[in-house]
Each structure stands twice: as structure tokens, then as C-alpha cells.
Amino acid sequence: MDKLYVIGNPIKHSKSPIIHNYWIKKYCINAEYEKLKVNEIELKNIIKNLKNGTIKGLNVTIPFKQKIVTYLDEIDESAKSSLAVNTVFVKKKKIIGANTDGKGFFNSLYKDINYRIQPSSSVLLVGAGGAAYGIFSELLKKKISSIEITNRTASRARDLVSHFHKLEARGKIRIGNTEVSLRPWGFNPSSKIDLIINASSLGMKKDDKCDIHFQNLTKKAFIYDIIYNPRETIIMKEAIRHGISCSNGIYMLVRQAAESFQKWYDIKVNNDDINEVVKLLGY
Ligand code: NAP
To answer: Reduced to 3 states, what is the DSSP secondary structure of residue 260?
Structure first.
């Protein structure tokens, strides 16, 4: 029987076993996916078990998304650009790290939310952590008109942009076709913004206040909060108050899991598989 794990610390909250065990059963795979609370010292041994075939694959969560890299043989382009690994798989006896957040985000945006990014789109990305790196990297591939980025700690937003391009003195730069600008935390996004992506943890805590303002947005704007717990986030509440369409991150969660599942089993789950799991999770 294949053994798969999501490793992290804490790990109690993880929904990954529900998602993967559903598909494992549906596709009649002889496998079991479990949560594993680990310490850093155990990472080496876990990777050894991947090498000897005792473990088939891993998902990796906080605080090991960066730390795991030193134990792997390779990281793919998605992990390089996001500076974090959330999926580990074995290919031709090599232990490879990938990050499925960016792809999961865009698959959910296109397939579940039916939102189409246009070359003329202007996007505001909120956050500069691991998830933001993955989303930013995928956003650049869309060759859209402009990306604005804001983060509570401004220097981390600057670091994110510098990771993809050398930042010029005035803080306004072009990466390929896309104009990228850094914005101060708490600024008022202008009416030209089509899509706001919250890739920060703002809204995870009960007493968080919405630091993003929507007064200037038009009704054509869409707000995608990648947080899925709470189901209606503080940012979504604010969006609804302004009559702006929005979504939480549950479909991204399931779509990024689907990308991991494909890396382990070469099975592309279909829309029914996605929707059944979303329902199973109570959304
Ligand atoms: P991370 O690397 O720890 O980054 C956290 C980010 O959130 C940083 O930009 C941080 O800003 C910001 N932040 C934290 N608390 C904040 C607050 N109270 N107000 C404003 N900004 C705050 O985490 P991550 O992996 O990028 O994940 C970010 C969020 O996305 C988490 O809530 C996570 O659950 C969610 N997520 C969802 C999915 C999905 O599939 N739906 C996938 C990945 C992540 P500073 O730089 O100022 O600290």
C-alpha cells in the first residue's frame, strides 16, 4: 500500500487527507494519506523513506515549505519561482519538490469561478508570502497590463518583486509586458483595478480588521480571497457590502491538491471530482 503524508507543525487543521483519500478511493488506488506532525530533525529520514519507496509522496506545510528544499534532489520551476515547496514526488529515482499554489489558484479562477483574465487586466495582489510568490509568478505568465502589490511589511513586497526582476529606483518597473508597482499598505485601490487577490493571512484571525479599501472599485471588479476558513472572510464581507463579487479560497485549495495528486499518480481529476470534494468539505 502506498503511504502519503502531509507534514507540518501544527498539522491538526489540514484538510488534505479528506481531499486525497476521497480521490484515492474513487480511483481505486491502494494507498493511504495521513497527517504527520514532524520536527525539523525528522525531515532527512522522511526523504530517505521516499528514496527507498516506503513513502510515495508528500505535501509540505508550515513551517517546512522552505526548509525541505535542502533535502531534495531537485526543485522544479514552480518551486524555484515561489521559493517554497508544497509537494514532493519521485521521478526517475529523484526526489523532486514543486509548488502547486500558483497553478491551483489559476485553475480555480478559470474553471470554478469562470473568471477570465484579459491582456488589459489590472490586478492588485495583497501579500508577499509563499502563496503570493506562486500567484505572482503565474500572473506574469498571463502578460497582463499591470500588477500592483501591497503587503503589510513593505520590504517583503519589494523582495518579491526583486525576486522576479531587478527593482529600479522609482519603484515602478516593467516585467515583460506587465507594469509592476508597489503600493503602501492601506492605500485606496483605484477604479482601474479589475481583480484583487488576497494572498495574505489577513482575515485568518477573528479580530483582524479589513485594511483593504473598496470605495473606488467599480462593479466589474472581482475579489478573490485565497483564505477558506472562515468561509466568509472579512475581506469578502467588505466586498459584499460594496456590491462587489467575491470568492473564498476553497476551490484553490482543492485545485492545488489536484495538481499534487497528478504528480503522484498521473491522474488528472475532473470537475466532478473537484466539486464532490468541495461538497465533502462542507462548502
Ligand atoms: P506566509 O508565507 O506566512 O505569508 C503570510 C502573508 O500574510 C505575508 O504577506 C504577511 O505579511 C501577511 N500577513 C499575515 N498576517 C497579516 C495581517 N494580520 N494583516 C496583513 N497581512 C498579514 O503564508 P502563505 O503560505 O503565503 O499563506 C498566506 C495565506 O494564504 C494563509 O492564510 C493561507 O492559509 C492561505 N493559503 C491558501 C491556499 C489555498 O489553497 N486556498 C494556499 C496557500 C495559502 P508580512 O510580510 O507583513 O508578515
So the answer is: helix
Atom of ligand 1 nearest to the CA of 86: 43
The domain of 12 spans 2-98+251-280
Q: Assign residue 74 the CATH number of its domain.
A: 3.40.50.10860
Of 140, 222, 210, 221, nearest to 173 (Cα)? Answer: 140
**Does the pLDDT of residue 171 top 60, yes or no?**
no
| One domain, residues 21 and 39 | yes
CATH number, residue 220: 3.40.50.720
**Same domain (yes/no): 33, 122:** no
pLDDT computed for residue 166 by the predictor: 65
User: Looking at residue 109, what DSSP letter applies?
Assistant: I
Domain count, the chain: 2
Ligand 1 atom 7, closest CA:
200
Supply 66's cell numbers: 522552505
Task: Return d(Cα 235, Cα 61) in angstroms, integer.
Answer: 24
* CA atoms of 155 and 177, how far apart (whole Å): 24
Region 207-211 average pLDDT? 90
C-alpha closest to that of 79 among 55, 60, 63: 60
**Is the CB of residue 252 below 6 angstroms from any atom belonging to ligand 1?**
yes
Q: Does residue 158's CB lie within 6 angstroms of at least one atom of ligand 1?
A: no
pLDDT in tens, 54-63: 999 999 999 9
Q: Which atom of ligand 1 is nearest to the CA of 253?
A: 40
Q: Is the CB of 249 under 6 A from ligand 1?
A: yes
Per-chain mean pLDDT for the chain: 95
Same domain, 109 and 198: yes
